[in-house]
Amino acid sequence: MKPILRFIILAIISMFWSCEKAIDLKLKDSDITKYVIEGAVTNQSNGCKVIISETKKFSDDNQFNGISGAIVKIENNGSTFMLTETGKGIYENLTVTGVPGQTYRLTVTIKGEVFKASSTMPAVVDFLDFTLKPNDVDTTRATPRVKFKDPLATRNYYWFQQYINDKLLMEYKVLNDEYTSGQEVNEYLVYENTTKNRALNLKKGDRLTAEMHCIDEPVFTYLFSLFGANGADNGAAPTNPLSNISGGALGFFSAHTVQLKTIVIP
User: Fold this and answer.
1) How do 79-87 and 90-93 pair as beta strands?
2) Residues 83, 60 contacting (CB under 8 angstroms)
3) pLDDT of 27
4) Whole-angstrom Cα distance, residue 118 to residue 115?
5) Is the alpha carbon torsion for 92, 96, 102, 103 positive or negative?
6) The pTM is what?
């Protein structure tokens, strides 16, 4: 029977993203738990990070279930970089700076089990603009627009993470260039208060940040499938997201570029 998944977004301070989204997948009580591995190498100069946790049952609490004692390494062009555990389930190496066009290979060993993944960092596609018109914002919702020029010669995949006042949102957007290859792309992002807490409503002076990542196809496939993993509204059986990690773990490993732009609500 396929596991019923629930996603809990945990904001974890990160040195290569402003925050890291760690996904805590909860299984039915009868299902076997699995390891969840989320890792990234970026073109920023502040290293790489891998977060390792374990799925939980519905009856468990929602605390991050980090896994200590793993052996984590990243290989690239004949060099091996070992990651050090800096917190429970959090592994880092501050000397790794990713280079577009190169492939990075992750190996994680946990209690004799080996999990592997690889990801090739795409070339940088310039993040041209991030704008907000007065008519595109109210107290609960804002729809600013991102702008970039897609290169014609290659297939390209994009991942936009969103922040309000430096707090990472659960919402994100992934795009490919199936219908926009070689074109200028103008795409809207949605920022909104979906809670009943009016204190979280958007207001003048709030900072909206869009973080643009150029990602490879397996990472796009994972992120695209992630929000569909809870199953359809018609009761169809849910499935796990399509991970690029071998060995039976959930999660993903991504070598991607990072660009940020911030606007202030006028």
Assistant:
1) antiparallel
2) no
3) 46
4) 11
5) negative
6) 0.85
